[in-house]
Amino acid sequence: MEDLKKSIKMPLFGNTFSPKKTPPRKSASLSSLHTLDRSTREIELGLEYGPPMMNIGGQSWKFEEGQWITESGGNASGRELQRLKKKNVQLEEENNLLKLKIEILLDMLTETTVEYHLMEKEVEDIKTQHRRKK
Asked: What is the C-alpha to C-alpha distance for residues 90 and 96, in angstroms, rounded to an integer?
């Protein structure tokens, strides 16, 4: 029976796997803009490219300083909102730092007060001992 199994080879369940080699990718750009000279590119794309802009749902968005900013109807309210959010984060960080400084100062004041009271007690003890010796 084993001789029969060895003699019959099923190509579907063979031990070797050899995938087809994929052809190399083209490294050239698919855009033909790089072949155009400067004057043609300026005509096609305009003189100033400016920041990227898009309209979504009737609201225009502009990419400035690494963030998308809304410009609804030409109002600067979106830009102002972004500026205020940034300022708010900055003020919260400053507030946290000041709270930490106050806590440290209160700890220092407590320590100094305790040391003062201990020294005051030592002075009173020394005065009391001195009075007893007389």
From this structure: 10
d(C-alpha 27, C-alpha 129), whole Å: 96
Shortest CA distance to 82 belongs to which of 96, 97, 73, 72? 72
Rounded to a whole number of angstroms, the distance between the first and last alpha carbons of the chain is: 123
Question: Which of 121 and 3 is assigned the larger pLDDT?
Answer: 121
Query: Per DSSP, what are the bridge partners of residue 53?
Result: 62
Q: What is the DSSP letter of 87?
A: H
Decide: 36 and 46 in contact? Cβ < 8 Å.
no
Contact 69, 78 (CB under 8 A): yes
How far is it between the farthest Cα atoms of the chain? Answer: 124
How many residues are listed for the chain in this entry?
A: 134
* Cα separation values, 91 from 3, 6, 65, 103, 104, Å: 84, 80, 20, 18, 20
Per-residue pLDDT tens over the stretch 21-53: 887 776 666 666 667 777 777 777 776 667 788
The domains of the chain are located at 36-73, 75-128
Q: What is the mean pLDDT of the chain?
A: 79
